[in-house]
Amino acid sequence: METPDNATEASDEATAPTGIAAQDWATASADPQYRAAVVDLLGALAYGELAAFERLAEDAKLAPTLGDKAALAKMASAEFHHFEQLTDRLTAIEEAPTGAMEPFAKALDDFHRQTAPSDWLEGLVKAYVGDSIASDFYREIAARLDTDTRSLVISVLDDTGHGNFAVEKVRAAIEAEPRVGGRLALWARRLMGEALSQAQRVVADRDALSTMLVGGVADGFDLAEVGRMFSRITEAHTKRMAALGLAA
Description:
- This protein is mainly alpha-helical and 248 residues long.
- 74% of the residues lie in helices and 0% in strands.
- The chain has helices at 25-28, 32-62, 66-92, 97-114, 120-142, 147-156, 162-176, 179-205, 207-213, 223-244.
């Protein structure tokens, strides 16, 4: 996953961490509710990375050139490495990776089924827009995590290179055929709505995660802040649409 332009910034950079955000995993995980929230978070991220790997491998089949196929294969490999980092951490804290991922499989599979791209360009836009929205969401949560978990989450959200790749290819396609821009703009708006709805459903279905998000086990979030968080994610999406040469 990625946030290529770093359009949103984690708020822990602005002020010194307090509470759980200032603790390490050994200390913070003594709270069973916090531990459950982190297991959920790592499970959701791990399945997301596995799905991203599978999707990039599928997108490579639609690539118009051998160079494009190779580029997507390299990005898919990076996503799988992120998946391994997350499952290794789950194993290290004595949680079964498959058990942690299972609660999120259907929601993510449904999202990908409902937003299956019809061609190469739609696949690029989906990876750029959809993955970046998810990364922004997880970065917001990461600011409230313990230091060890936060470091892991931020590392697996590093840009795999897909962002710049997608921008280059989509802008070139629009320049060659301007009518493509309108179709892709509509597609990106649909992705935005589906991605936000999917993120909200995932949190609502998991008590530990929802409690974390509104401040029950991690300081700094409240219901008003949740609203501001989604506003920041929407603003970042608008910036990415501009980078693609599309209207938000």
